[in-house]
Amino acid sequence: MGERIETRRSFLKKVAWGAVGLATGCRALTKDSKRTRPSFVLIIGDDISVDDFGCYGHPHIRTPNVDDLAAGGVRFANAYLTASQCSPTRCSIITGRYPHNTGAPELHMPLPEGQPLFPLQLKQAGYYTAAAGKWHMGSYPKAAFTRRLSGEGPGEEENWVSCLRERPQDRPFFMWFASTDAHRRWNPDEHAKPHKAQDAVIPPYMADLPGTRKDLAAYYDEVQRLDRYVGLIVAELKRQGVLDNTVVMFMADNGRPFPRCKTWLYDSGIKTPLVVHWPRGIAKPGAVSDSLVSVIDIAPTILELAGVQVSASMQGVSFAPLLKDTNRQVRNYAFAEHNWHDQTAHERMVRWRNYVYMRNALPELDNLVAAHWNEPSYRDLFALREQGKLTDAQADVFLSPRPAEALFDVSTDYHQLNNIAGDPKRRQALEHLRRQMDQWQERTGDTVPEKLTQDRFDRKTGKQLFKGLVPQKRGTIPGSERDAQNVNDAGPR
Length: 493
Description:
This protein is of the alpha/beta class.
């Protein structure tokens, strides 16, 4: 076991070599390269599922600006997060590492010092770097940004345009724009026409009742507002004459805050919209890539496009080749994890071809998100349960115990409702993915601690068990027993 985990000495050696390469990258940033290197804008939506954009097939939601980016760029149909939770996702993005390898796999954990930061590499290579909006990563990553605007909450996106306007004009730039839309609570968008209850598309695991429809319509308004800010960013880039050589990436940090979405490892929670727009560098505008991509691939992709050496401790792989040829393949597997998010959890997921495999170390626990029980979409399901009217798909929200492992064929089961782990015809796929999961957990230093962080809410009553958003004392963090935050092995890719 220990032989497959890189030692701290090996880790530091790789960091040193990375520093050498970084210094080379810094020296290479001449006046000419400053004009030709692309700039970058990374826009991260909050709590939005992949289906909730026009370009991803939603028939009613109004997202014209993201749709325009997709029409002029590349839309990724199989992009996966590493966690269906905000802060672990952000830590994965900025480091290019899996949550248990960042040392911050649970909600609201600060990123430990020493982890790679791709914006810092850009900054050291001559880029102007700025961040605005939602953060939740602690103090350490702040050093990666020349400027950071810390305002959060409704309207913080107003700072995005000012960041672009106030940047130095003689340097390439990287902007990290993180939205609070569409995080609950909802705030009406006074600048746009509101969606109506009849606009709601009800997935089979939710209740087609008035409360849920109104809840979804209000959520659509938040997505629409975020889309409007995306339009303002694009307009400003056009005004400055830099859109042609600016890589604009749009994504979300986890699925919509509704039943069986946020914090779940189904595609409704773990699959992200990912649109990349770059007029100078995309071969076929409007193309769709079905190739598998992970959120940990964003860091090495941006560094490669910037001409900066990728840190040896990053576990992702660049998907830059897909901007030229969307039919290429850069990875075979995408892994994700679910750790503490108000409640104890330890689940792992891998996507391969048309299969999704899940492993649950704590199948005796349900996955109800007690923090959202008072929301209309949950209340409607509770009402149906009391009436004995839940469908099988809706009942899955309440299921306890849950399967210790599950296998889904997403080519025929879009919403992942039919667990085929027991199907003899799928035995070969099941055993293959078991082996890949075993390898990934072993090689990346993942663990299942005996004493995990405890629940914030009572699972039967929904009563809050301790004050604040985070526990005063956490349990043993997954991966900590094997020093996973110093393990660089990415496992199967």
